[in-house]
Amino acid sequence: MADDRRLSMESQKVDAEGTVWDFSQSGRADRCPMYRSYGDTLVAEIYSGCRQWYGLRNDSAFYMGEETRFYKAVPETPIQTSAFGNPLLLGREDCGTRGVYCRTFALGQDGSYESLYPVRGHLILAEGNAVSAEAVTERRSFTEWLVSDSLPDGLKKTRETVRTRWFVAGDTLPVALQITENVLHNGRKVSSVTSAFIVPASEIAMNEESLREAVQDALDNARISLSGSMVRIEGDFPADVNLTLHISDIAGSRFYHEPLGATLNGGLWEIPLPALPPGQYILTVSAGTPSNRKITVSI
After folding, report:
1. CATH classification at residue 294
2. Ramachandran category for residue 284: left, alpha or beta (phi over 0 → left; psi -120 to 50 → alpha)
3. What is the pLDDT of residues 31-74, one digit of tens each?
4. How many whole angstroms separate alpha carbon 45 and alpha carbon 6?
5. Looking at the structure, do residues 245 and 117 belong to the same domain, yes or no?
6. How far apart, in whole angstroms, are the C-alpha atoms of residue 142 and residue 181?
7. Number of domains, the chain
8. 247: closest CA among 269, 279, 220?
9. Segment 279-295, tens digit of pLDDT
10. Residue where a domain terminates, one of 177, 203, 229
11. Alpha-carbon distance values, 32 to 8, 174, 197 (Å)
């Protein structure tokens, strides 16, 4: 298990449902989440005075409850989640937690827990600096109640909590987190707060495998076009990526082969075409990854 981790940079809200997550506008957080691992079997996510517990076992992960200085709530049975483990442990289930509040009130949370399928995409750390990542979202919707001898009718409120965590290859702890807390009354949202955090960009180490995956993903999704006599290649590439442009006719005869060098403009290359006779040509863009990109153009 990795060492404890502090997500010390606070960011603007990101579109967690997309595949490109822009954390480039981040600043030092006044209060930030942290992850604390206890051996290989237990992880705590600590934020705003609340400690969420997750148990790990082989390739499985379970939500184990939460606690603050005022209360502790534990699921009636551990809840399977893809948040820190096998992505096949997704789904929605009804669940309840039970606990105590201020040593006086019986506390309960009755509702549902949903773990969504991981989504692959890119974390943008700064202009021209993006890394391949995977986002995993969990959603809890529940009615929370407090009951005591002096308050037999209890107090109730309905809450929805959505957490999205981002992981990079080879790392067992999240590098970014977004939390949305909604309070509802009679099914209508009365308050909503979203906070997003990320580790400093210098702490996201790209190993060789994850860097290759990031470059391949960027190449697969790059926008390649021909306008007049100019080839334009634009994509969310990691820094210092070198591309090569190869032009051949339909029969495979080579007309042009040129290394393009590393981008200096946030993943944008503009290359003037050499003089070519009219006809159809295949433009191949490579980046030293297993697969190249090809498009057919008419000149």
Report:
1. 2.60.40.3080
2. beta
3. 999 999 988 789 999 999 999 999 988 778 899 999 999 999 99
4. 10
5. no
6. 12
7. 2
8. 279
9. 889 999 998 888 899 99
10. 203
11. 5, 13, 7
Q: Can you give the pLDDT at residue 208?
A: 59
Q: What is the mean pLDDT of residues 105-129?
A: 87
Distance (Å, whole) CA 92 – CA 111: 11
Distances (CA, A) of 11 to 29, 46, 79, 185, 254: 8, 18, 30, 29, 48
Q: What is the pLDDT of residue 71?
A: 93
Domain that holds residue 269: 208-298
Whether residues 162 and 236 fall in one domain:
no
Whether residue 168 is found in the same domain as residue 232: no
In this structure, the dihedral spanned by the alpha carbons of residues 182, 186, 188 and 192, taken in order and rounded to 10 degrees, is -20
- Contacts of 4 by beta carbon, 8 Å cutoff, 6+ apart: 34, 35, 36, 37
Q: Which residue has the higher pLDDT, 255 or 295?
A: 295
Quickly list DSSP for 186-242: TTEEEEEEEEEEE--GGG----HHHHHHHHHHHHHT-EEEEETTEEEEE--PPTT-E
Same domain, 45 and 162: yes
Q: How confident is the model at residue 207 (pLDDT cuts 50, 70, 90)?
A: low
Q: pLDDT category, 206, cuts 50, 70, 90?
A: low
Same domain, 224 and 91: no
Amino acid residing at 111: G
Looking at the structure, do residues 158 and 242 belong to the same domain, yes or no? no
Same domain, 171 and 33: yes
Q: Point out the domain boundary residue: 158, 176, 203.
A: 203
